[in-house]
Specification:
The protein is of the alpha+beta class. Helices cover 15% and strands 32% of the residues. Among the domains are: 36 residues, no CATH class; 41 residues, no CATH class. A hairpin with a 2-residue loop joins strand 10 and strand 11. It is elongated.
Length: 151
């Protein structure tokens, strides 16, 4: 947590007060929370990944027609398909990427789907007519040009 302020004056409520005036003032709970939030924000900024650094990735590769997969560890140079908008990074990765922590996905699009298929949670699809239970009434399913998703 931030322990002190090293400037001679700080801005409080649109007026400047000398540090000597508030030096011995006890911090309120609100002040402590604000300082903690500032400290947390600074810590997060310091730990944000930097674009353009070398990184180690595992790429899945298919071998011959038997579809046996192997993993190859490579150190890749910065990719040219990285786009950064604010704190959001958009990157296209060809191959298999292993995530060691849970990820949150806002929307999944499976390519090659048809309007007669339902996308399952594990990424597989099933035809609507092969369901062994009754579909949910008023559920809406829609297909798009590149795949399908449940809306």
């Amino acid at each position: 947590m931030i322990k002190g302020i090293e400037r001679n004056s700080i801005r409080m409520s649109k007026t400047k007060k000398q540090m000597s005036e508030i030096k011995h003032k006890e911090l309120t709970d609100e002040d402590k929370i604000r300082l903690q939030l500032i400290d947390d924000a600074i810590s997060r900024i310091k730990t944000m990944p930097k674009i353009g650094l070398e990184r180690s990735e595992t790429i899945g590769e298919t071998i011959d027609d038997t579809s046996k997969a192997c993993n190859i560890n490579v150190t890749s140079q910065p990719k040219e398909n990285i786009i950064q908008t604010g704190n959001e990074i958009i990157q296209t990765i060809r191959g298999v990427k292993t995530f060691l922590q849970p990820i949150i996905v806002g929307k999944i699009i499976k390519q090659g789907g048809t309007s007669n298929q339902i996308l399952l949670a594990n990424g597989d699809t099933i035809d609507k007519d092969k369901l062994d239970y009754e579909p949910i009434e008023n559920a809406r399913y829609s297909s798009i040009a590149y795949g399908m998703h449940e809306s």
